[in-house]
Amino acid sequence: MKNITRVIFVVVLMIFSISATAQLNKAYFYYQGQKLISQNKFTEAISYLNTLIEVDSTIAEGWFLRGVAKYYLNDLQGSIVDFSKSISKNQLFTQAYHYRAIVENRLKNYNRALKDLEFALELRPEDAEILFTRGGTYIETSQFSKAIQDYNRVIRYTPNNTESWINRGLARLFSNDTLGAINDLSQAIKLNPFYSDSYARRGRIYLDKKELDVALSDMNQAVYLDSTSTMNYFLRGLIKNAMKSYKGALEDFDKVISIDPSNSLSLYNRALIKSQTGALNSALDDYDRLVKLNPKNVLVFYNRASVNFELGKFNDAINDYTSAITLFPDFANAYINRSVAKSRIGNLKEAEQDYRIATEKIQKYKATSQEAYIAMADTSKKFNSLLSFNADFSEGFSKINLKNDISLPTGFLPFFKLQLVDEKSKSSFNDYKKPFIEKLNSLTSNGYHFTFTQSNNQNDPTEGIAHCIDTISALDNVKHFYKALQYSSMNKYNQAVREYQNALKSDPNNLIIALNLAVEQIEMVKFINQFENEVGTISFKMGNPANSQKEKIISANNSYNESISNLKTLENNLPDLAIIPYNIGNTYLLTDELSSAIDEYNKAIFIEPRFSEAWFNRGLVKLIKGEKQNGCLDISKAGELGLNQAYSIIQRFCK
Fold it and tell me: Given pLDDT bands bounded at 50, 70 and 90, which one contains residue 557?
């Protein structure tokens, strides 16, 4: 939505009922406040306006101007109070309604904003600025057809307003009218050919349409007009790479990194292109920087190992493959490549051992699912796709196309299962009791207990499980359950699944064990799939693996559907446990069934209204579906319930 523009004040005829001297003083303070605001001296302006209000609190314009000054100081609540006070002094003050609506939009109070705008338009039905603001509010609330109608009127009244054409183009884009969006952005460019944003937005659409020549032309112009925008260079780099203009792509990623040295996404893409075009030492430098920025990224270590191997630095390659294996112990590919590297330095015994481990893992994955085998055991596999998500761009296009800029499953909170945690850890499920849970807790030392929590929320679980429980007198089901938790904490999914299955054999009717097993199986497939699609969004690949990718997606979805069926059976037997519909919702995210995910989160919230993670994930799904207002309200609720990461999402997507 259009940001509030600099206030253009009209001279207000002020009728004072007291002496000429007082009249002169009030006029002086009024116009001084107005002047200082126009000079961006907002604090000083407030001081003069305070004096005016103290002298005569009935002057609506004084409250109005102070509200404007507070707005520019980001005191949004204060500006709302002052605009409201202004309206109380003059109930026909159109500008006050308009500006209060703008602030309400900033605060995500869209219904209030629309109410103010409706009243303002009753007073001034053909006011283009008010219609413009309402059109933006309709975009924020996904009422795109209404937004288009408002911008139609704005364009009819002020056909040379560039921003109106851009905003109508966005509304058309969100309505899947791509051609209409391109036409509107083209008209905006015709009206103002020196505005970089219009070219960049149109170029983004052409990029999505794979019309690369036209996209490149637009991005060239965007860069020419704004040479400081990292997003402009980044998008142009992706286009050039897709066109196999690798030198040009490198130059653009170089520029991004020169402006923002910590932009790991551009570093990663640059390293890939360098390694694929023979600039191995330079690629190695980029990977070294990436390791410092992303010390837990498996692919950074894996790809750096490949470069070290090609350079003949076999010991360094071995160390990197070892790091990749530490992060993901079931990475058969890394074992195979480490085996080859060890054989190159004459360490044949360990090379044979690595090869044997890799072979065992390959067979396990092959037995589990075909896509797991393809992803983790294909020795010719190279993880060399350029990434195009927006993690390293604080601004960029997140304001343009929210639905396209949140990628599944990135950003969603993980699955819940029964785990050993510090007893001080907060959980909505600490009071959930079942005999198996009570049995586990009876074997646990003071300071720790078992409860349902996020699957990545264990407090050093390997150490905790080893030292905080008594397994000597435990039954087999408990012993196998403990082992499964240990393997799970180390990402050894196959071993964890096997131990859960053994626990279930010992205790076939244990629903809690069955629940953890179902989650473990989902997480195994999900983790494997990350290597095919690292953070949910990979595009502009070198090569064309489209057909095999479809087969892998179908295979993965079959695995997820089986897990959903298992979880729904558990849901029938444990109808009071909110984490089960929550986990089902998370699984639907992985199959892109967003409406079904929302249905499950609804159930989870109904069972446990303080389930902050369910509010959070439901909010993200609504954002993806274009329901920005409702999505932001859900995420706000999650923050209210103590989920701190909610506010980073609000800051990025709910402005």
Answer: low
Tell me the pLDDT tens digit for each residue of 17-42. 333 334 446 777 887 888 888 888 88
Domains and CATH numbers, the chain: 20-190 (1.25.40.10), 416-531+556-653 (1.25.40.10)
Ordered DSSP codes for 364-412:
HHHHH-HHHHHHHH-TT----PPB---TT-SSTTTTT-HHHHS-SSTT-
Rounded alpha-carbon distances, angstroms, from residue 174 to 35, 180, 380, 592, 612: 40, 11, 40, 19, 29
| 3 state DSSP class of 314 | helix
The share of the chain scoring above pLDDT 90, in percent, equals 39
Closest alpha carbon to 184 in 160, 168, 173: 168
**8-state DSSP, 457:** -
Tokens of 125: 């039905």
Per-residue model confidence (pLDDT) at position 395: 35
DSSP output for 52-95: HHHH-TT-HHHHHHHHHHHHHTT-HHHHHHHHHHHHHH-TT-HH
For position 396, what pLDDT does the model report?
31
Instruction: Give the model's pLDDT for residue 607.
Output: 92
* Strand (E) or helix (H) holding 655: none
CA–CA separation, 240 vs 350, rounded Å? 43
Task: Identify the DSSP state of 625.
Answer: T
Task: Quote the pTM value.
Answer: 0.49
Q: Which helix (H) or strand (E) holds 331?
A: none
Contact assessment for residue 344 and residue 332, using Cβ atoms and an 8 Å cutoff? no
* Residue that is written with structure tokens 């112009």 in the block: 221
Tell me: the pLDDT tens digits for 423-478? Answer: 766 666 767 777 887 888 777 777 778 888 887 554 444 444 555 565 566 688 88
Question: Which are the contacts of 26, defined by CB distance < 8 A and separation ≥ 6?
Answer: 14, 16, 52, 55, 56, 59
Element holding 451 (H helix, E strand): strand 448-454
Tens of pLDDT, residue by residue over 320-366, are 999 989 988 888 888 989 999 999 999 999 999 999 998 887 777 66
- 417, containing H or E segment: strand 416-422
Amino acid identity for residue 541 in this structure: K
CA distance linking residue 75 with residue 78, whole number of Å: 5
Rounded distance, CA 160 to CA 187, Å?
Answer: 9
Count CB neighbours of 227 within 10 A: 12
Q: Are 646 and 635 in contact (CB under 8 A)?
A: yes
Bridge partner residues of 448 (DSSP): 422
> Please, are residues 449 and 419 in contact by the beta-carbon 8 Å criterion?
no
As a whole number of angstroms, the distance between CA 531 and CA 308 comes to: 21
Task: Give the tens place of pLDDT for each residue, 530-539.
Answer: 544 433 222 2
User: What local confidence, expressed as pLDDT, does residue 442 receive?
Assistant: 78
> What whole-number distance in Å separates Cα of residue 452 and Cα of residue 576?
13
Q: How far apart are CA 205 and CA 218, in angstroms?
A: 10
Those residues with Cβ within 8 angstroms of residue 73's Cβ, 6 or more apart along the chain or in another chain: 42, 43, 46
Q: What is the mean pLDDT of residues 222-226?
A: 92
The predicted pLDDT at position 403 comes to 25
Evaluate if residue 563 carries a pLDDT over 80: yes
Print the SS3 string covering 173-225: HHCCCHHHHHHHHHHHHHHCCCCHHHHHHHHHHHHHCCCHHHHHHHHHHHHHH
Please report, to the nearest 10 degrees, the dihedral formed by the alpha carbons of residues 595, 601, 607, 612 taken in order. Answer: -150
Distance CA 493, CA 474 (A): 23
